[in-house]
Amino acid sequence: MSRIRAGQPDLSVEVGSLQLTNPLCSASGCFGYGLDCDPLLPPEVFGGVVTKTVTPQPRKGNPVPRLRETSSGLLNSIGLENCGLSPFILEKIPALAARGIKPIVSISAGDPQGFADMASALNREPVAALELNLSCPNVASAGANFATDPGAVVEIVAAVKGAFTAGPVWVKLTPNVTDITAIAAAAAAGGADAVCAINTLLGMDIDLTTGRSPFARTTAGLSGPAIMPVALAAVYRISRSVEIPVVGIGGIASAEDVLKFLAAGASAVQVGTIVFRDPTLPARILDELAAWLTERGCDSISELETAWR
Amino acid sequence: MRASLTANYRRGRVISCQPDGDLYFDLELSVEQETPAQPGQFYLVAAEESLDESLDPLLKRPLSILTSTNDRLGFLFKVVGRGTRALARLDEGDGLDLLGPLGNPFTIDAEPQPLLVGGGVGVPPLIFLSQQLSAAGIAHRVVFAFGTAGDIPKWLLQGMENKVEICTLDGTCGFHGNPVDYLAAEQDRAPARIQACGPGGMLAALRGLRKPGDEIELSLEEHMACGVGICRGCAVPVKDGDDWRYATICREGPVFPDDVLHHGELEAPLTGPGSACRCGEENNE
Questions:
Q1: Does A289 fall in a domain?
Q2: Which of A131, A283, A295, B243 has its CA 20 to 30 A from that of A115?
Q3: What residues have CB less than 8 Å from A139, skipping those under 6 apart?
Q4: Domain with A153 in it: what CATH number?
Q5: From the centroid of its chain, how far is CA B97?
Q6: Contact: B51, A278; criterion CB under 8 Å
Q7: What are the chain A neighbours of B233 within 8 Å (beta carbons)?
């Protein structure tokens, strides 16, 4: 649904061939399957709806505790809890389609063929794009190793590109590597249409009553405003090292944050953790973004980017 | 079981925030618009400036509702970390971000007779429930447990002293011991709807008191981020046919009939470290 109104700046952006009505997308795992927070946060607010990562089979997820708050951040160890691909295709996609929404579907599997099989099944569905979750650090068996191995990234992306022609393929990158631009280059070499940076940072906590981590899997993923400077640097470096577009993710909580990612080289952004704080924030960010552009005499986001460069 | 998401995001203003006994803070707010709330439901609450400026604490805190009348909301909470410490520092007129009311409430029904069992910070939603039961003319019992007499909030002593059966762990007021021991001594207790909120160990032990004809409703709590079911953080295992699945406490609870909870060997949701089920206590730290 377009948010363009008479006299309002045009917030639409392009991520490669994919047109988005505004630069704000939901981040996978932070917005369920797109309708879970409706009507408090309708999916139509977002320029792109990235759904919670689905795996070939359902996953129950990790035992509690799954969360710990940190200074301006959140550690999570959800464990890719999801309904599995078949219920996703049979129930979740049609529910979004009934609202006129083609989601950007986040997928994860245990091997390249698993990714390709999911991509093949989704190729027949009304989806806008795929986002490959190679980098969820919570799960020992699904995705943990691929994201840090350039060879595996090339292989998986190439397999998915061979099976999915309905839209672009985005690759979500982990920051838990020595050089994230090398992984971005691997994604591009495999044929990725865009990369998304960053997934959560590896973190942990200690419960002082036990002297051990509170999490069953010991480590967890850190998200939220605390990680934004890390994400911004990653986007900046990646956007100057690969030709494909970059989608910025990491702690975005305001229109100013969105603008910083766009200035650093992102074509669009995703918001996640801050939605937990305030589900009405995405709509307010867009209003503030429009006001910011208007104040500076910009009619569109593309104009803003021209002014910066 | 999943509640429809009718919660609203709104601003509130502090009317008063002061200590009540040695354990609690009593927070009374005015809100922009009235939304009827039921006992057992909760709000996510945060001081306004933490979003506008520091984003720290990042998340709202889940507080169970103590009172909800017209344009007023009341909470009773215990300081256990940074989030509730920030709330305890609020002054008259300060702004608050609120999301709610959230979650599913306790059952209000006369049969079997309600037996409310609250421990420590699990007490506030049961005060609200007791008031609603009384307003509906439903006879019920109330058993509250505290660590020591000094923890008891003074308005509770003023308003409900004739109704509440008090237990203290150190014996400084009422029965000397926990509410499970107190109730276990009643050999001829009539069938009851046990409606409980409190520490995980207390809730687990209450199950052992179950007699034929009893119904049990437990209000659970876990670390919570979104309050609306999308983050999947506050998970609790529930029965799912012959299998089980994780439900979210915020969206499918916080009040669960004990019969739907899955008590398999894999999970120990009511007794595990860090998973104390305490409504009214902030829990993100």
A1: yes
A2: B243
A3: A59, A79, A80, A217
A4: 3.20.20.70
A5: 20
A6: yes
A7: 66-67, 76, 78
Chain A hits for B7, Cβ within 8 Å: 40
Identified catalytic residue from A30, A136, A196, A298: A136
Q: Cβ of B225 under 8 Å from any chain A Cβ?
A: yes
Q: Quick one: how far is CA A179 from the chain centroid?
A: 20
Q: How far is A67 from chain B (nearest CA, A)?
A: 6
B17 and chain A: CB distance < 8 Å anywhere?
no
User: Domain for residue A123, yes or no?
Assistant: yes
Find the domain containing A304 and state its range. 13-61+80-201+223-308
B275 contacts A207? CB cut-off 8 A: no
* Residue A136 annotated in active site: yes
Per residue in A74-95, pLDDT (tens digit) is 999 999 999 999 999 999 999 9
Q: Which tens digit of pLDDT belongs to each residue from A197-255?
A: 999 999 999 999 999 999 999 999 999 999 999 999 999 999 999 999 999 999 999 99
Residue A170, domain member (yes or no)? yes
- Selected residue with higher pLDDT from A210 and B279: A210
- Please determine, for residue A1, whether its predicted confidence score (pLDDT) is greater than 70: no
Q: What is the pTM of this model?
A: 0.92
pLDDT at B108 over 90: yes
With tokens 């969360």, the residue in question is A67
Q: Per the CB < 8 Å rule, is B231 touching A65?
A: no
Residue A217 resides in a domain: no
* DSSP-assigned states of every residue in chain A: -----TTS-B--EEETTEEESSSEEEPTTSSTTSSTTTTTS-GGGSSB-BPPPB-SS-B--PPSP-EEEETTEEEE-----B--HHHIIIIIHHHHHTTT---EEEE--SSHHHHHHHHHHHTTS--SEEEEE---TT-TTTTTTGGG-HHHHHHHHHHHHHH--SS-EEEEEPS-SS-HHHHHHHHHHHT-SEEEE--PEEE---BTTTTB-SSTTS-EEEESGGGHHHHHHHHHHHHTT-SS-EEEES---SHHHHHHHHHHT-SEEEE-HHHHH-TTHHHHHHHHHHHHHHHTT-SBHHHHHHHH-
Looking at the structure of chain A, the number of domains it has is: 1
- ipTM score: 0.91
